[in-house]
Write a structure and sequence with these properties.
By secondary structure, the protein is an alpha+beta fold. The chain has a single domain, classed as Arc Repressor Mutant, subunit A, CATH 1.10.10.10. 39% of the residues lie in helices and 12% in strands. The strands form 2 sheets. It has a two-stranded antiparallel ribbon with strand order 1-2. Strands 3-4 form a two-stranded antiparallel ribbon. It is globular. The protein starts with 11 loop residues before the first helix and ends in a 22-residue tail after the last strand.
Length: 145
């Protein structure tokens, strides 16, 4: 199978990867969640080559993850904001960050912390059962078709 055909698979993971699976995409999303809006800022903060970044922003806009809005004319300048579809990727991004904090942080520890604005508590993302509130791990689950 070709990567370009993955969105046609009967698998939600494969379909999701067709949107976020390219190697620069998660860094673009990280920055969007950090309120980066403009091309130059995305480029500076991710280090992505300009043509690659332009393609990622175009693809994320076409997939409905980002919305492109003009903020200046002559020359035309645009900013990118997360859509509702994009905002729904937040748990994915912070879960990936938590995994990186645990397994890849190094001696200095995690480079950033997430704090809940309402109470200023440092938050570590955790998947829980909506019914009983227990933590959910891979061995606690089964797939039903």
């Amino acid at each position: 199978m070709r990567w370009s055909e993955i969105r046609n698979e009967d698998c939600s993971v494969a379909r999701a990867l067709s949107v976020v699976g390219e190697r620069w995409t998660m860094l673009v999303l990280r920055e969007a969640f950090n309120r980066t809006r403009r091309f130059e800022d995305f480029q500076r903060r991710t280090g992505a080559p300009r043509p690659v970044l332009a393609e990622r922003l175009r693809a994320l806009t076409e997939d409905g993850v980002l919305h492109r809005t003009r903020y200046a004319r002559r020359p035309d300048r645009f900013e990118y904001r997360l859509t509702e579809k994009g905002l729904d990727l937040y748990p994915v991004v912070v879960s990936l960050m938590a995994w990186g904090d645990r397994w890849m942080a190094g001696e200095e520890g995690p480079p950033v912390r997430l704090t809940h604005r309402a109470c200023e508590t440092t938050v570590t993302p955790r998947l829980t059962c909506p019914a009983c509130g227990e933590p959910v791990r891979a061995r606690d689950m089964r797939v039903a078709h």
